[in-house]
Recover the amino acids of this structure.
């Protein structure tokens, strides 16, 4: 038994105070054109950890962080370790700690294969919320980027999660349709959000990292061959505006909670949608040079 737990490669910003438990290493899919993040950060392979290893890490983590209130399971798709391992880890964590919330990353395709009965078992074991990469509701955009999920699959999975009482936090990637497909990308994304009313929608913007390095975003290949044309910064803000226009007053918390976002609007759609829309419109009404200076000021990071 090591004296240090294994670390996650990435976690959602909202889990910065959580106990970070590694169930799997890397991503078992690793094909999304806009991502490639695990290989880029040194974790090219995928593997599942044993329940024994995970329990040992939980013991160490609890010793190091007594009194912690929330926990997060990673890496990219910890449910790929199988229901038995995941449920075993969740039950053990619940037994040896007083956490009030357990969340994880989850791929829609993995949840879809699992089915409603197994999703209910996850809820019984204490899983409260999943961070799910919706990215886009547009089937062509998803297919182009090899996301490995369809809008229909996401809708089915969202309903199962809701039946099981597990909260949903979607990630949406502005710019994913490129300049040619931004309207379809945003319109179809709004449709899925309206249809499924998740607890959270978190916005990100597409950023192609690592140009001309050994660890570069796979999408550079399509940018270079001309099959993908990157959205402009202003186009990204216009996408945000269109999305906000199309969203209904849902009981959904909307957040642009990443440093890459050009605008950081947030609020509950049913109460704050109009204010958020006004904030975006106020920004777009500023003089051109002010807007361009703002875009240049926003850093790009993973
Ligand atoms: S977006 Fe998620 S599923 Fe796709 S390659 Fe990246 S980590 Fe894996």
């Amino acid at each position: 038994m090591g004296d240090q737990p294994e670390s996650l490669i990435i976690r959602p910003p909202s889990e910065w105070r959580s106990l970070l438990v590694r169930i799997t290493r890397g991503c078992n899919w690793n094909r999304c054109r806009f991502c490639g993040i695990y290989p880029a950060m040194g974790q090219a392979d995928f593997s599942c950890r044993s329940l024994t290893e995970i329990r040992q890490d939980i013991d160490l983590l609890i010793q190091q962080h007594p009194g912690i209130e929330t926990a997060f399971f990673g890496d990219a798709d910890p449910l790929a370790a199988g229901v038995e391992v995941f449920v075993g880890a969740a039950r053990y964590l619940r037994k040896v700690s007083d956490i009030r919330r357990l969340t994880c990353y989850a791929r829609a395709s993995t949840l879809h294969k699992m089915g409603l009965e197994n999703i209910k078992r996850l809820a019984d074991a204490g899983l409260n919320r999943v961070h799910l990469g919706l990215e886009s509701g547009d089937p062509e955009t998803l297919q182009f980027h090899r996301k490995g999920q369809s809008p229909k699959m996401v809708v089915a999975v969202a309903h199962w999660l809701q039946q099981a009482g597990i909260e949903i936090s979607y990630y949406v990637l502005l710019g994913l349709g490129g300049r040619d497909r931004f309207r379809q990308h945003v319109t179809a994304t709004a449709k899925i959000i309206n249809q499924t009313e998740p607890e959270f929608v978190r916005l990100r913007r597409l950023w192609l990292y690592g140009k001309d390095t050994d660890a570069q975003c796979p999408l550079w290949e399509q940018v270079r061959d001309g099959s993908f044309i990157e959205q402009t910064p202003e186009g990204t803000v216009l996408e945000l505006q269109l999305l906000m226009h199309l969203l209904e007053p849902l009981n959904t918390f909307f957040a642009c909670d990443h440093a890459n976002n050009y605008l950081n609007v947030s609020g509950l759609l049913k109460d704050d949608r109009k204010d958020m829309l006004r904030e975006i419109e106020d920004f777009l009404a500023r003089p051109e040079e002010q807007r361009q200076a703002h875009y240049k000021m926003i850093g790009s990071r993973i």
Notes: Strands lie at 19-22, 24-25, 47-48, 70-74, 101-106, 129-135, 167-174, 200-205, 253-255, 266-268. The CA atoms of residues 22 and 222 lie 33 Å apart. The mean pLDDT is 96.
